[in-house]
Specification:
This protein has 169 residues and is mainly alpha-helical. The protein contains four helices and three strands, in the order αββααβα. It has helices at residues 10-33, 67-89, 94-117, 145-168, and strands spanning 39-43, 46-53, 120-126. The protein has a three-stranded antiparallel beta sheet with strand order 1-2-3. A hairpin with a 2-residue loop joins strand 1 and strand 2 (46-53). Helix 1 runs parallel beside helix 3 (94-117). It starts with 9 loop residues before the first helix and ends with a helix.
């Protein structure tokens, strides 16, 4: 017998699955069409590139010698287990569950890359001159659909907490 509320988890797991599929399709298109370092101009502020990230966000620990692949894979899988547990506990909290589903889909998309390739495929390259003081040439670190989903999930979590605190006042 399913736990109370477990039926409510399926739409959120479905959203996470859609994000994983979208992430992996876009990455496979990049891998099939670009060599490492290739770039296509799209707009004055945006390029499609092929980059490999062996680290985490902003290439954190990218040059650590290889152990980070397994560390970040374990962190991603651990986060996925925790998120599924949280989704089972709170499937009716729509914004909270949406946030968790986005983070879950993004985490699993990047875990798949780490297991399959040993690195995460990044390809979205935004750049603005105003960022030149922070990033070389004003290029924000390249990212992918999974990273965007994780970011959207984090923003939604923050918004959910702000709204929750306001409701308690």
């Amino acid at each position: 017998m399913a736990r109370a509320g477990s039926a409510g988890i399926w739409p959120w797991l479905g959203l996470a699955a859609v994000l994983v599929v979208a992430d992996q399709i876009t990455k496979q298109l990049i891998l099939a069409s670009y060599q490492l370092g290739d770039s296509t101009y799209v707009a004055s502020f945006f390029n499609i590139v092929r980059a490999h990230n062996t680290g985490a966000a902003f290439s954190f620990l990218a040059g650590a010698g290889g152990w980070q692949r397994w560390f970040f894979t374990a962190v991603g899988l651990g986060a996925a287990v925790f998120i599924v547990w949280m989704l089972r506990s709170h499937p009716g909290q729509k914004l909270f569950a949406f946030a968790l589903a986005c983070i879950l889909g993004g985490a699993l998309g990047n875990v798949i890359d780490r297991l399959a390739h040993g690195y995460v495929v990044d390809f979205l390259d935004f750049h603005w001159p105003v960022l030149a003081g922070l990033f070389p040439g004003g290029h924000f670190p390249a990212f992918n659909v999974a990273d965007a989903a994780i970011t959207l999930g984090a923003i939604a979590l923050i918004l959910d907490e702000i709204l929750r605190v306001r409701r308690k006042r």
